[in-house]
Design goal:
The complex is a heterodimer. Chain A has ten helices and ten strands. By secondary structure, chain A is α/β, with parallel strands linked by helices. In chain A, the strands form two sheets. A seven-stranded parallel β-sheet of chain A has the order 1-10-9-8-7-6-4. Chain A has a three-stranded mixed β-sheet with strand order 2-3-5. Chain A is globular. Chains A and B meet through helix 1, strand 2 and helix 10 of A and strand 1, strand 2 and strand 4 of B.
């Protein structure tokens, strides 16, 4: 059973050090540091985030999204058609982002995350997963001031981001995750969502993951199994109903299983993880399961995030050993 | 105490002067004593009280010069909390996020001494400033209580005791900040309402709850059931779009009307402020309106803050004069 993470990772160390990223951004904002110097610090911190994951024993890592201010503006600022507006709360978190506004036709003009992916791949001892924010979530968390309907807006974003996925696959990304937490909050839009996902993956040759979090997929399951993703990511913490959902119809894909609470400091015990994996294993065999936190780890202070990674790996190993013992 | 029509006030925090920031850094490294730090916090408080008096504001705040973060401050002073570490809130802004590790409660009054100090500096009323139970719970990790409900209600009882002590100390205005109240409107708004009832139960002080960001339309008109006299809201940052929401159902409480954006560097014009108030008065009667910035101003520079407070006061004055003028003309017609 493999382990992975959802995406983002703390950018600064625990107190008392301010951390080089934070210091660099402050200096950059005051004009005391130029952009190449800031990018160099981001490279360094990215390398450290990857090292944390590799050292903990995570099998499929991400670059920690150190360079992302957030999942929305990182894409909106680099697509054509957007301006950036006032602060908004990110779902039910205490994280804020500036709301993108589509003021014209949105279009992909150049790779957004490809350089980030290739940098991470070149600095990681383990395989790297590329991650993008999906078109449905991007549309939900931004404002459409251009398209006649929300559906037209989502479709346009799916087309634009399809180019990004193709570029990632072309650059050698063999696993690409599409983050769609907004699906859990807007299940009534499923037909639109499904169409957007098909357009998004058109001609993309990589192994793709549909990653949901902050809720469950009740009411859109088992339909989501028809989507052309190889892996579905589910959050079993905020989406505790996913336990029942999974039982309602055979799970035919691979499962990225968000078991550890990415939003609380309490560290799950190995026993808890083994027990949870056993519950899932009744429905999805371990070889089709990747164990993960419930969401990105940037909700936690650095030291706690690192302990979560270790708990995740220990739990997965113990669960695998227990499964082997049970079969023997 | 009599307040003018459209009383002006602030949401709570003001930026800390450079000498205080420096002292806080030194204090973290234990290079200065707690007493030395407190002395500078008092100096900064005196300066902000003076600034607000000079500007002609009506209900003053102490500026929270002694607080770092609005939740961590209470967590630090109360039982049951530890600080887990820094987590990011926006851009390169981080806050020390508390973690509930045991039963929560007050060890002693938290804000009363600072309230008394600030009030001793002025004859204008100073608002007591508290963070609400829902927000403290929502912005903390919880390793102790099996349910959020238990944590929120236990915190509500503690904050209620603080309300009682503030009132005893002479606070005629008490604000309970609940910026997280609409985080889970479907699942938990009733819990937030229940918690606020506990917080303000039996008080005769005029109570305010400040709510910002998030989906305010989603909790309207339900938010009118919160057990406070006034809801203080950010109107300016979305150019008074919330007024459309308030047309849906009458705004039955007083409103603390945010007329300057707390998160932009630009100081609004006096006319802009006056215009925002005028637009509001078409929806909410003047007798129900207090005027304030959108949010705490601690992330602005001191110059930006003073600038924003000044245009707030001047814009309000302009509208007051118009209203007085209209009344006089009205009188002339009837005579």
């Amino acid at each position: 059973m493999l382990t992975t993470v959802i995406g983002n990772y703390p950018k600064i160390p625990d107190l008392p050090a301010p951390g080089k990223w934070r210091s660099a951004v402050e200096k950059f904002q005051k004009g005391q540091l130029d952009e190449p110097a800031l990018r160099a610090v981001e490279d360094e911190v990215t390398t450290e985030a990857i090292a944390d994951q590799v050292e903990a024993g995570i099998d499929l890592v991400t670059d920690g999204q150190i360079r992302w201010e957030d999942g929305q503006t990182h894409f909106a600022r680099r697509l054509r058609g957007f301006s950036i507006n006032g602060l908004q709360r990110y779902f039910d978190t205490n994280i804020y982002f500036r709301e993108p506004v589509a003021e014209g036709a949105v279009a992909w003009t150049a790779p957004i995350t490809v350089g980030e992916f290739t940098f991470a791949r070149d600095h990681s001892a383990r395989p790297v997963k590329a991650v993008i924010t999906g078109p449905f979530t991007l549309a939900t968390l931004s404002r459409n001031a251009h398209y006649p309907t929300f559906a037209a807006y989502v479709t346009a974003l799916a087309g634009a981001l399809n180019a990004e996925l193709r570029a990632l696959a072309g650059a050698g990304a063999s696993v690409i995750q599409v983050d769609e937490p907004a699906l859990c909050r807007h299940k009534g839009e499923y037909p639109l969502f499904a169409g957007a996902m098909r357009a998004l993956l058109e001609g993309v040759t990589a192994r793709t993951i549909l990653c949901t979090y902050f809720g469950d997929v009740r009411d859109v399951y088992p339909q989501i199994l028809d989507l052309p993703f190889a892996v579905i990511g589910l959050d079993f913490v905020a989406g505790h109903r996913n336990w029942e959902v999974l039982r309602s119809a055979p799970f035919t894909k691979d499962l990225q299983c968000g078991l550890l609470d990415a939003r609380n400091t309490r560290i799950e015990t190995t026993e808890e993880i083994v027990a949870a994996v056993r519950r899932v294993a009744d429905l999805v065999p371990p070889e089709r399961m990747m164990l993960a936190p419930s969401a990105g780890l940037e909700f936690l202070p650095h030291g706690v995030a690192r302990r979560k990674l270790r708990a995740l790996v220990e739990g997965a190993r113990a669960a695998a050993a227990a499964a082997k013992g049970a079969r023997a | 105490m009599t307040l003018p029509l459209l009383p002006t006030t602030a949401v709570g925090s003001y930026p800390k002067p450079a000498y205080l920031l420096e002292a806080r850094r030194k204090s973290l490294r234990r290079q200065i004593s707690k007493d030395e730090l407190t002395e500078l916090e008092r100096r900064a408080t005196r300066e902000w009280i003076q600034i607000q008096e000079d500007l002609g504001m009506d209900i003053l705040v102490d500026g929270e010069q002694y607080r770092g973060d609005m939740v961590a401050y209470f967590a630090d002073e109360m039982a049951g909390f530890a600080i887990a570490g820094l987590v990011r809130s926006y851009g390169n802004r981080y806050y020390p996020k508390p973690v509930v590790v045991g039963p929560v409660g007050r060890k002693a009054p938290v804000t009363v001494e600072w309230f008394k100090y600030a009030q001793s500096l002025t004859t204008k009323p100073v608002k007591g400033m508290l963070t609400g139970p829902y927000t403290i719970a929502e912005w903390s990790f919880n390793e102790h209580y099996p349910t959020r409900r238990e944590l929120v209600l236990e915190l509500a009882r503690a904050i209620h005791d603080e309300v009682v002590d503030l009132e005893r100390a002479g606070a005629a205005f008490i604000q309970i900040d609940e910026p997280a109240i609409h985080t889970r409107p479907e699942e938990e708004f009733e819990l937030a309402v229940e918690a606020m009832e506990i917080v303000t139960r039996g008080t005769s002080a005029y109570t305010v709850s400040h709510i910002c960001y998030g989906d305010v339309p989603k909790i309207y008109p339900a938010m009118l059931r919160l057990a406070v006299n006034q809801l203080d809201l950010a109107l300016k940052n979305e150019d008074f779009a919330l007024l459309e929401t308030f047309r849906r159902a009458p705004f039955t409480k007083d409103i603390g009307l945010g007329v300057v954006d707390a998160h932009s560097h630009r100081v609004e014009s006096v006319e802009e402020v006056a215009d925002g108030i005028r637009r509001t008065l078409r929806v909410i009667p003047a007798a129900q309106v207090h005027v304030s910035p959108d949010c705490g101003l601690k992330t602005r520079t001191i110059d930006e803050t003073v600038g924003k407070l000044r245009v707030m006061v001047e814009g309000t004055r302009l509208v007051r004069e118009e209203l007085a003028g209209a009344r006089e003309r009205g009188d002339a017609v009837t005579r």
